[in-house]
Amino acid sequence: MDPKKTVIVTGFEPFGEHAVNASWVAVQELEKLGLGQIVDLHVTEVPVEYQAVQNLLPSLWKRYKPQLMVHVGVSGMATTVTLEKCGHNHGYTRLDNCHFCPESECCMEDGPDCISSVLDMDAVCKRVNSSELGVTVSVSKDAGRYLCDYTYYTSLYLGQGHSAFIHVPPLGKPYSAEELARALRAIVLEMLEQMENSTVKQHCQHGQ
After folding, report:
1. Which of 16, 69, 152, 201 would suit a FRET pair with 93, their CA atoms being 20 to 30 Å apart?
2. Could you give all domains of the chain from N- to C-terminal order, each with its CATH number?
3. Which of 86, 107, 125, 148 is catalytic?
């Protein structure tokens, strides 16, 4: 039997117009559902603060050494559950919940402009949409240059691409917390399966 996989899923605290943050509500619902016997799931709420993200993410990667870290954020513009392909390093000018923004306006001073996830988000999207879950999934290349994008880039940088970001719409627009949690569960399990299969392929190539 495969050893247990460790997965961390995060949501964000309330900010701006989002007095209730759908991302954290959905992640808490996901925790109730679980990811099955062989997945050790840890959830945590992320403050909407640049400096808190810089402190929290390295400690999560170091403490749990997860196979995958998935960040969930809310987007007032989203009407689907949206998989983000990449995180961006520059353009952070919007003030956080502490009225702070990085002087450099970037995540990592020496980091690349953009880091992509090791996951094939198009493939994940296609598989989940074909499963008749009742929740529509789409793909995006722009996580918005605020705490969502900032968190994603930082996590991709620390985890060498073994990270994902999922934007969810506000609650009831159109999905309930339970529906969002079911969608998150299907997406994360699909991501884990894809990672496992790509590892198998790599091993096969080495053996040739």
Report:
1. 69
2. 5-207 (3.40.630.20)
3. 148
